[in-house]
Amino acid sequence: MHPEKTERLDIPQILARLPLFLELAPDQITYIAEHTREKRLEKGGVLFQKGDMPRGFYVIVFGQIKLAFPSSQGNEKVINILGPRQSFGEAAMFMDRPYPVFSEALSDTLLLHIARSCVFELLEQDTSFARRMLAGLSMRLHSLVQDVESYSLRSSAQRVIGFLLQHCDQESRDKIDPANEQTIALPTSKQVIASRLNLTPETLSRIFHDLTDAQLITVHGKQITIHDIDRLRTFEL
Question: Which pairing describes strands 36-41 and 109-115: parallel, antiparallel, or unpaired?
Answer without folding.
Answer: antiparallel
